[in-house]
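Notes, p. 3: input format for complexes.
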Amino acid sequence: MQIREVGVIGCGLMGSGIAQVAATAGFPTVVLEASEELCQRGMHNISQRLERLVQKGTLSPHEGTAIQNRLKAVTDKSQLSNCDLVIEAIIENREEKLQLWRALDGILKREAILASNTSSLSITEMMMATSRPERFVGLHFFNPVPVMELVEIVRTILTDPQVHQTVLAFAGKLGKTPVCASDSAGFIVNRLLIPYLMDAIRALEQGAGSIADIDRAMKLGCGHPMGPFVLLDFIGLDTACSIANIVFEEFREPRFAPPGLLKRLVIAGRYGRKSGKGFYDYSDPNSPKPLELDRR
Ligand code: 3HC
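Output follows (296 residues plus 3-hydroxybutanoyl-coenzyme A):
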């Protein structure tokens, strides 16, 4: 099984990162978005990141151009018909993903490998929306995709072992380190990360320390690159809350349940960095201000 051309569906934060690393690894990559405007926005973000790498001297101008030339943004699903591997990275919504896979099933070639970048939804359920469940895997990247080394490769009860091997080799070609996970909610990373992040919010609710001090403590005391609240804002509070709900739904253990403060922040539209406010206010990006304690 050989992967020659890659398709990426969705060119947001994760999709644009996946498309960038695939094209950088030499794969012609077709990116599907819902509108011309979203195509342009996604491609612009990739160009800017590549530009930065050229400016830093990590990439030669020639390589930068070659990577861009390997990328093609389209709005028509039929343009994915030649792809050997199609990675879906759309919004984390069960219904939308199932609908997309049903629609793609009649368009993608029979030998294509199908993959979802979902962080918590069931791969088994998605694969059953297609007529070729044995060719379906989870391929979970981490944000920021060009920087984070890990990819979780999720195998289901029905995944063909050859498909699994091909995807493992593909992750290696992207310069990533794959780990194998089974299709249980949260896979490996979010199963361990979510209780930690939810606990940080509970510690805050119970007065263990301030947002800034809890962040500082975990960063400097444990050597984490980001404290839990900076990381929550980075992931997106809506995303973190939705993953917590899904993992809680599966295991029914209180440690996975989203605390009240997280739910209130999401309802209030404070999604973290992407909305400008979360546990911190990013009005001045160089000096984010923590949420006032009396407004929790
Ligand atoms: N895209 C591309 N490159 C980026 C980037 C981005 N968004 N952000 C930072 N970088 C690059 C920088 O250019 C720099 O590259 P260089 O070393 O070649 O110069 C390098 O990363 C380091 O960046 P900075 O010096 O600006 O900042 P930091 O040293 O603080 O690193 C970080 C930034 C890599 C984001 C680091 O803080 C980190 O590792 N944070 C933790 C991230 C994390 O845990 N991600 C996983 C989230 S969970 C998830 O994704 C799963 C999902 O299901 C929820």
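Residues 49, 58, 119, 142-144, 146-148, 190, 225-226, 231, 235, 239 surround 3-hydroxybutanoyl-coenzyme A (CB under 6 Å).
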